Amino acid sequence: MPFLRNSKAGLAAGTLLAAGVLAAPPAAAADSAGAGRPMPAETYPYVDGVLELTLGDDYVFRSDDPANEINDLFFEAWLGLTVGLTPIFSINAGLTLEAVEDPGPFEDRHFGDMGLYVDTLNLQADLGKFSVVAGKFGPGFGTAWDITPGVYGTDFAEDYELSEQFGLGLAYTFETAGHGTHTLGANVFFADTTALSESVFTRRGRLDVIDGGAGNTEELDNFSVTLDGKDFPGLSGFSYHLGYRHLSAGLGDPEDENGFAAGLAQSLDLGNGASLALNGEVAYFSNYGGSLDDALYVTSGLALASGPWHGEIAGTIRKFDFDGGDDQTDYLAQVSGGYTFDNGVDVSLGYGFAREAEIDTHALGVRLTKSFEFSTRTAAAE
User: Fold this and answer.
1) What gap in Å lies between CA 169 and CA 320, rounded to an integer?
2) What does the alpha-carbon distance between residue 186 and residue 156 come to, in Å, rounded to a whole number?
């Protein structure tokens, strides 16, 4: 269910192919931190880093299922590193600390089930307009799971995020005269079943091919293709994303999954320190998760900021068409707002409503977040 800090397949999985096109998740920044290289030779090797900290609380105060009515106080941290080796090669790494197990029914949780794991570890090569990544990363597909604003804005869209995969990714960025900048991406991969899929402190369990699941094949027979665009003349702040993915059936799955995603985003400068951001995405899946069922996600969000104040509205409609002929439509809606202090600490409050399998759930959430960036390149340049 949403609103509770459940075990996830990577809090901030790297996404090389969307980097610099749409707002990327933290580990995507690690995958793409070398954008704009080559750097002067005397700066190598260098280390760029980002540390993201979140202290939060989710209080489910009413639900049709009383087992959901709990309070979850949690802490999350993500560290992303890029080690620049040469003007061409760099190493990207990401570490996530979060709750790696689901909270128990009827039981409040206070900083429980914390596990630390490697969500990203790869070698990247930048060759002019081409970028290649090999290792553990988050293949590009969809953006709503990342850019939808609000405390609970991404909760449903995170269902189809691709993260913690092993394989190869290729991105080619090209400019068109009068028609913007575009990035074409292609990835081949499989779900991580190495020791890196395990966590320490609280063990989440190492993934095994016998666990099944679409994409869990230990073969490079899964792929995604994406096209992203931005910088259109006369359309300042506009961007788009198109994606297709194929996940081969895992052990025990009846069918391969095929998914399609199309998203738009628009940011506007309203003047006087105010800005507006809009996004929307539709994602459709045939044989979702390797099953015989189909799924449709429609997500949209709006964020308004004025100085240090900000507010967000977001929602998702999720529909499952089951093989037996039945269907299920779920809803997620949220409203949130917050204030960013001069020291970079942001405090956000949010209300979320979800209907899943005809069960209505209401939650209140609070987030305190802070981001730190560091680099050895400045010192080296001096």
Assistant:
1) 30
2) 25
Range 306-317 average pLDDT: 98
Report the DSSP pairing between strands 71-84 and 46-63.
antiparallel
Closest to 4 (Cα-Cα) out of 61, 79, 64, 88: 61
Stronger pLDDT, 290 or 35, i.e. the higher one: 290
252, with CB counted inside 10 A (0-12, 13-18, 19+), is: exposed
- Residue 306: count of CB within 10 angstroms of its CB: 13
Spell out the residues 6+ positions from residue 59 whose beta carbon is closer than 8 angstroms to its own: 71, 72, 363, 364, 365
- Find the length of the chain: 382
Banded pLDDT at 21 (limits 50, 70, 90): very low
User: Is the overall model pTM greater than 0.85, yes or no?
Assistant: yes
- What are the chain's domains? 16-381 (2.40.160.10)
The answer to whether 290 and 214 are in contact (CB under 8 A) is yes
